[in-house]
Amino acid sequence: MLKIKYTLLMTLLISAVAPACYKYAYDHTQVPWQPFSTGILSDNIPVLCYHNISMTGGKEDVYHISALHFDEQIKILHDSGYHAILPDQLYDYLTQRQPLPSRPVMITFDDTHETHASIAAPILEKYGFRGTFFIMTVCIGKKNYLTTQQIRFLSRKGHVIGCHSYDHPAVTTSAGQQWKHQVDEPVKQLEAITGTTIRYYAYPFGVWNNTAITALKRLGIKAAFQLSEETSSEEPLYTVRRMLVSGKWSQMDLLKRIKKQVRS
Ligand SMILES: [Zn+2]
After folding, report:
1. Span 38-64, mean pLDDT?
2. 145 CA distance to ligand 1 middle (Å)
3. What is the CA(77)–ligand 1 centre distance, in A?
4. Single pTM value for the model
5. Which SS3 state, helix, strand or coil, does residue 202 take?
6. Which of 77, 28, 15 is nearest to 227 (CA)?
7. How far apart are CA 1 and CA 166, in angstroms?
8. Under the phi-then-psi rule, with left for phi > 0, alpha for psi from -120 to 50, and beta for the rest, what region is 195?
9. CATH number of 34-261
10. Ligand 1 geometric centre to CA of 14 (Å)
11. Cα-to-centroid distance, 99 and ligand 1 (Å)
12. What residue segments make up the domains of the chain, in order of their start?
């Protein structure tokens, strides 16, 4: 019953924000974050998710963080012995139990914000980390969003580029199920930009369903990242759960959240 209510709630939420999804500049803050904030992780590996990063600070929540607080959070991960891993490492671990470095953490970014290249990547690199950047391709080159050159540069610096659809419809909607338009073409565009193979996908709004998983497999996606529900025991590679990180969290808050959510 709880699950039905939750699904209904998610459907209402998605319906409420759907008109904005067709624009690249939709506002993520329209989606309440509380239902997502308690969840986990993939098979004991914390996967963090960031969105807006700003130099000047201002609003801080699970979709916004200042450069100062982002730097502090990445620093405490580094100083606490965490090692940033990339999707191939997670995939190899989940499928073949290939060993990971001690205290692995995956650091991901959604929605193509320009500050991912100008602020986030340099901070990650300062601590020897690399991140995974999920791109919605409609935004590329728009004001305040990543350019093709920045995406190429991120890739060449060792970060991983993933797909986050063309213009961010939930895969539970008819717009989101236009797989050629929303997955195949964006993947090909990102492959042309980076010269790499794009094999990882983040669900818009973090919401997934089995129809989408079938389509993603057919299109060659190796793993997909969500936000909203427990990792599916049937499809763990296509329901890797991520944790939205709040800009309000202190360094200790972040460590506590990670430790709490990683099953021992
Ligand atoms: Zn998004």
Report:
1. 81
2. 13
3. 24
4. 0.85
5. strand
6. 28
7. 34
8. left
9. 3.20.20.370
10. 12
11. 30
12. 34-261
